[in-house]
Amino acid sequence: MAAKPTMILPVVLLVAILSFTNALPSETISNAAETLSDSGYIAMSLTLNLVSSSLLSQTSSATIFTPPDSIFTELGQPPQSLLELHISPLGFSFPGLRSLDPGTKIPTMSSDNYLTITSPSSSDQVSINNVKILGSPIFDDGSLIIFGIEKFFDSNFTVSDSPAQIPSINDCETPYSGGNSFSFHEASNVLISRGYSVMASFLNLQLLGFLSQPSLTLFAPADEVMVDYSGRFPDYPSLFLRHVLPCKISLKDLVNIENGTNMNTYLNGFRINVTRSGATLKVNELPIAFPDMYYSDWLVIHGVPAVLSLSEPADDDDNDDSDGDTFDTIPFRDSGDEVTVPDASTRSTEF
């Protein structure tokens, strides 16, 4: 278990903001449709208005891939099954996509189909299903990201699977061996720009404490779910430390490790359990909404839609000495099993 870093409490109250919702706001859809139209993607702008209620009503983040109007003209109105293939329930930045290895599977709204990264690891460009992404996002408000692509993805596209490289769980105890100059400034700016400013503040305040263990993964709850912690200074150490792993686990690692893997965090005794449910990756039953929001040689940040809650002791029902606050209590119980790395013959890149 990694040594617990020094915790410095913030000296300002958290800002109260809108309550959390599982759906993308209608204003986001409206702004995205307007931006698409202004950018010359009129067909997808009209399509987005038509299908948003059915395809985007149950997700708090999404990435859409859209071909230009000329491709829509050639095909005509695409069936919903094809549109589903062009929408992922996860948020992806361009650097996040570029960090993924060839063969990495990306979940889509089509339960039977995944997208596959096909660009070489060394490339500055990104291709998916052998279709190139046309540069920076057309629209990006932190929850909905829209990329232009050359043409529609082929729903019958296949690629031969290569053996997945399963990350060693022991790496979660191994300090980063690179340089000795570290800054959270860039990562914090990314968090702030995407609506995770509270966790950005926590991250900045941990710089001195993490210099001895600078290989990290942060699961960051969005600002709107942090309002319940406003002014609760005694809870801040637990709140922050249980969202940080003492190792770097990126999306490509998460999709390849064994389903049900447990990993230690900086909060003594608190572990993160990684599971897969259909096309959804979960940590302690929370879906990862924005994987690889920030990615560097030593730090990875994933966005999650809620706070990772503390486990409720299974045998302490009659000895509850809490202060009545149930915000941190959910019926999640750790099995206590040690983490195991699966045999190579059972490894797969699909989840």
TrEMBL record:
Coiled coil: none annotated. Belongs to the fasciclin-like AGP family. This is FAS1 domain-containing protein. Residues 186-308 form the FAS1 domain. The keyword Hydrolase does not apply. Keywords: Signal. It comes from the Eukaryota. It comes from Lactuca virosa. Residues 313-326 have a biased composition (Acidic residues). Residues 312-351 are annotated as: Disordered.
